[in-house]
Amino acid sequence: MGLCEVLWRTLTALSVLCPAIGANSAITWEVQRYDGWYNNLADHDRGAADAALVRLFPAQYSDGVYLPRQEPHLPNPRQISNIAMSGQSGLMSHSNKSVLSVAFGYHVWSEISESRRPGCPPEFMHIKVQKEDPVFGSDSSEPVLLHFQRADWDLSTGNSPNNPRTQVNHVTAWIDGSSIYGSSSSWCDALRTFSKGLLASGSSQDMPRRSSSGYLMWSAPDPSTSPGSQELYEFGNSWANENIFTVTEGIIWFRYHNYLASKLHEEHPSWSDEELFQNARKKVIATFQNIAFYEWLPAHLGKPVTSYPGYQKYVDPGISAEFEAAAVRYWLTLVPTAVYKRNRTCHYKSAVNNDASKSPALRLCNTFWNRNNPNLQSRQDVDELIMGMASQIAEREDNIIVEDLRDYMYGPLRFSRSDAVALTIQRGRDFGLPSYNQIRESLNMRPVNSWDEINPKLNNTQLLRELADLYENDTSRLDLFVGGLLESQEGPGPVFSTIILDQFERIRNADRFWFENKQNGLFTEEEIQAIRNTTFHDVLLKVTSAEEGDIQRNVFFWLNGDPCPQPQPITFSDLPPCTKASSMSYFDSSSQAGFGVTVVVLFLFPVVSYIVACVVAHVRTARYKRFQKKLRGSTTDKKPAHETIAKEWLGHTTAPKQVTLVFNEKTVLQMFDENGSLLSSHSLGDQDHLNVLISNDHQHRALLLKIPKEYDLVLFFEDVGQRSEFLGHLRSELEGRIQNLTVMEMSEKEILRDAVTREQREKIVETFFKHAFSKVLDIDKSDAGDLSCRTREALQCELTRVEFASVLGLKPDSLFVESMFTLADKDGNGYLSFQEFLDVIVIFMRGTPEEKSKLLFSTHDIKEDGFLSKEEFTSLLRSFIDISGSALSKSQAEDGIAAMLQAAGLDNKDSFSWEDFHFLLRDHSAQLNIKGMEVLGKKKLSRQQRVSFIEKNCSSAMEELTHRPEGEQEQELRQRQIKKIEQSNPKVYVRPQRERYNRNPVQQWIQQFKRFIENYRRHIICIVIIYGISAGLALERCYHYGLQAHASGIPETSMVGVLVSRGSAAAISFLFPYMLLTVCRNLITMCRETFLNRYIPFDAAIDLHRHMAIVAVVLSVVHSLGHVVNVYVFCISDLSILACLFPRVFSNNGSEFPMKWTFWFFKTVPGLTGVLLLLIFAFMYVFASHYFRRISFRGFWITHHLYVLVYVLTVIHGSYALLQEPRFHIYLIPPGLLFLLDKLISLNRKKVEIPVVKAELLPSGVTYLEFKRPQGFVYRSGQWVRIACLALGTDEYHPFTLTSAPHEETLSLHIRAVGPWTSKLREAYTPENLLEFGGYPKLYLDGPFGEGHQEWTDYEVSVLVGAGIGVTPFASILKDLVFKSSVKFKFHCKKVYFIWVTRTQHQFEWVSDIIREVEDMDAQELVSVHIYITQLAEKFDLRTTMLYVCERHFQRVWNRSLFTGLRSITHFGRPPFLAFLSSLQEVHPEVEKIGVFSCGPPGLTKNVEKACQQKNKRDQTHFVHHYENF
């Protein structure tokens, strides 16, 4: 015992010893505590409430510790009850004991012991009922069980054979009035009025107060009636409302206390409430002690008790297990089937039954826990019951117990009836009681060896024979209660008598406050003698309307001559039947439906958030389109005078699309989409005739315009008026231009059936091209499709100019398309027939170089005289430059063409023949020999057929390469080396002298795996640590609740649900807080510069954030699923189980009925916060997806800022501590503080406005911003910042990579307008808005932040790959590299390869400017730039050949690319990363590691990663890939 506890107990004792201060106090004695503590001065806990039972004899558990002996070792308790305790009822007591003695016995029992409360964790010993059972038997496949839950036990016991389980007595063992005043001071206070020393009364002064609070009184359900009023009488005995006997006795002693208090108040009107109450209490307790020990106990045992020997402080008054679980329950045999009611004149009244019928007596089985008993509503009802009990003779003292207890004892709601005998037998086994013979031996009695020896007077051989069969004729196994009841005859047998007498004597002798103890100062000798002379008869006369002579003097017996004999012994045939056992489902159909709907709704949160996100995305997209349309509208001409809105029908499986119909001045019908983009053009003025079909049904809205040689245009209008208006406008536009316009009517169904839609037209054109190429190329006829009737008809169609341009991948108004179409259209009708198209592609695909050059020449030989003027020849070359989308101006292009002619010696000629043109192509016959064409993506070119520029000024190398097989080409690419040669441009690649490397697939896989581990070892270690900790925490909780948390009851109840929910919660508690560290940008940037960067992959922080978030949300769903299981289990679990699981929320008051599912979801803090968290998670994760984040960054920004609410709700969610103490805040504090510090740093920077010093609107939607560099702003090339512009009406921060170099005085960004925010930013810096703002809108800056591209200096050779806007980090790196080189700054990197992948060179001209700057400053040629233009790849080889010719000539003249204006190498198509990396392995054999840095769309970075992995299979140079996607 600790010092603090000793001090506390001492102070408490002093407070007890000094209850009152003042000389005039009427309380001059030591007031006895309500909880029984400190009665024994040596051992304060003896006899106190919640003390453990004592054992007179060693426990007999099957394992010696706590496991009870059950079937099959011992017989079924219900079978024992049916055999040994059934029989005829209504037999009167041998000694004429009255029923009032039975009622008083119940009260005495509840005064000194209460051990029926279920224990924690809940353990069950249900009693199985046989199918042939006469009352509970059932033919159902489901077994019938009499529910039994093991009693509460002292948790310090039950851990070894030396310390077996011992149950707890929840009331004091003393006869101290605890059944009247309660077992605690707070309980007593709840029963008092604190006025005149009275106990609180109800509607009548003579009746106790009723309450439905359920905090004090045990509130078991009534098995005989449906639930009604839940109000119970308030007594000191929590089980006082169990039956009619306990209720009556409770009312008697309630009245007696108030009688004494009122009398004392009359005698001592100056006394305080406390003085009156304590004096009355003292007298009540003493009277009760006297009656119980000296009047009732001798009557009960049938023999006198010993006189008081004086206080014996060494005696333990504790209730013995043998007394509590067996001996005290002897008087069950005395309990009658029903109770009479009579008045003072001996008139026996009928009792009112629950159905309002009447019967001679009040049946016991229908009064258990009855809240609305009509026979206990008034003072008179109670008086009549008391007088009836006094005159009624109890049941005979034998082994027979009435069916009201044996077959209709109250049970739980699951099965409303039970068997008191079977429960008593099972209770003895739960308590580990020794057998009947073991007790006899311990009491120095001779054990019985045969069944007849138990009770020789018991003339029931059949009973003994059947009982012997149950126990397998082994008397040593006979249960104590069964043997003790069988030996009873005219009173308790020797075993029970000994145990009962011993118990009461120990209680009396050990009680320091016993009324006969003259040393305690409670009473004087005269007062003691007055109490000894008080009988229960005297008490009843004072508290009832009975007078002397109405009740016999000895109320515990009714003898001949006593007043008002009972009419006759009561048998069950005279009474209404007991209500049958009923079962109740806690989870009925309505609960199932509501629970199911709620769970479905909860898991539809992601669907709801997805729908909301789609709506937001649609609104944002529509708003953005309107914004773009507004921008286009401000730069275009005014709209046509007349336009019509309709919907174009695209087919049965496609929804109609809204279009705008406009006629231009050339009678061309143009169709625009909602954004104003041109969809199609139809030249109607060139037609001979047009057929128009209109519908004559379905609101007359459909119109079909059948245009010869084109697809049918099917339009739906709003109404017939709009259709008529369009038709009239069509007639006016075509009037005088076509010969015939026919309008016909038919049904809408027929129109749609016969229409040739755009989709069908595309299939026809596809078939057209298939069969055209099948005649030229080596294509199987089966690949070209079946020549069905519809196909033959389709091949008779003719191509429009638009369809011809689309197959070439060019614009319809291109000069090249115009020339080629005019050349091929021999009949000049504006369409290409199948034969006309075939004639052209035959030359393209199979012609000789001379035929191809003649065809190209003929496209501009309009006069067909074999000569082109200088202007026509220049136009021919200019057409190819136009196709290339050259970066040159018109004057530069003309100068370049002149230089080309001068180099060929043709500059002095005014006209040019085909021979001159062919001479210009003399060095490019290899390209003209290529056979192949890329049309509609159907025929892919082989590597030999593709044009690529891989060397500077080396046409012979190109010619050689294009004639080699694919394998040799790749080998050639791998065998080239970059080096500088004096007076000439160097080759990019040279042939190395090394043999080809070979490995088997297994070795390659092993090598690839080794390189993967080497590349991602930091990532792997971090992931293993993070998820290892998460898994460890989850397993620890699962282990705890699965195996260790015995006191919680989880292992026996909701094992699966709790394990899943608590295990996942433990992992979530770690993941969510430490997820914050992955977005501490300032902390990450700082740590990247330390040694930690060698062990932690800071560049993968966002990826790790996503992974942790995904795992966390999955675990959150698992956590929710676990709680769904938990809620269901809790909804079908008894309150006794829930009270074990949640002792802070529930107290077991016997009501059994659990809370509804709505309570768990919506009325608890964890439930409500959990629902809110699921809703927030749904929105956060949906809006954080790549698709919605790209469309509505604002939605992502807002929903992700709900993280504050998430952490607050999560802390609250766990703080309720339903199952365990909150832990989340413990995990949250360390990362939360770091995150808060990081946020404070960012907030400090965000407050500073950054003025923009320069802004340019560059082509391709790029906005160049140059702004002032904040003081102390230090960064490295490749780092990025977050900026906000409040002028846009939002405080969103968006990340962008700095394109300025660290040595520059200002900061710069290149921002491409690809979304709403970036488009609005670009719009804000237009000249018009600058005038409105009065200057450049200011920015707010947060950063810089680091990422992997900073590490380019750590490698001797680095490869930088940028695509699209992903080139921005490399712009800063390239400028930084060249600057450091120019100032002789020493750094590890010796060579940088920069690969720029762009769709067209027009997309990012600003990159060209930066590369040009790098080329000018790169004196040491550290940087090798390669540009890949993907738009021109594999489209049309003849056209690409001409582009190549122009490019080569331009580089000869200007030493610059025709496409980019740079000296850098230009390629067509996508980069061959694998071949390129292969060549680097050979070019730099001395380099062990090469850093590869890519930034762009996921497709690009994936291809680079795949190439790196492929090369890392080989034991050569190791490629380390760093990437960033956008």
Automatic annotation (TrEMBL):
Keyword NADP assigned: yes
Domain of life the protein comes from: Eukaryota
Domain (EF-hand): residue spans on this chain: 812-847, 848-883
InterPro entries to which the protein is assigned, alphabetical: DUOX_peroxidase (IPR034821), EF-hand-dom_pair (IPR011992), EF_Hand_1_Ca_BS (IPR018247), EF_hand_dom (IPR002048), FAD-bd_8 (IPR013112), FAD-bd_FR_type (IPR017927), Fe3_Rdtase_TM_dom (IPR013130), Fe_red_NAD-bd_6 (IPR013121)
Any single GO BP term: defense response
TM segment ranges: 593-619, 1016-1035, 1055-1077, 1125-1145, 1165-1184, 1196-1218
Entry membrane topology: Multi-pass membrane protein
GO molecular function: calcium ion binding; heme binding; NAD(P)H oxidase H2O2-forming activity; peroxidase activity; superoxide-generating NAD(P)H oxidase activity
Keyword Protein biosynthesis: no
Catalytic function, reaction form: NADPH + O2 + H(+) = H2O2 + NADP(+); NADH + O2 + H(+) = H2O2 + NAD(+)
Keywords in alphabetical order: Calcium, FAD, Flavoprotein, Glycoprotein, Hydrogen peroxide, Membrane, Metal-binding, NADP, Oxidoreductase, Peroxidase, Repeat, Signal, Thyroid hormones biosynthesis, Transmembrane, Transmembrane helix
Cellular compartments annotated: Apical cell membrane
Similarity comment: family membership: In the N-terminal section; belongs to the peroxidase family.
Protein name as annotated: NAD(P)H oxidase (H2O2-forming)
Organism, scientific name: Carassius auratus (Goldfish)
Gene encoding the protein: LOC113043483
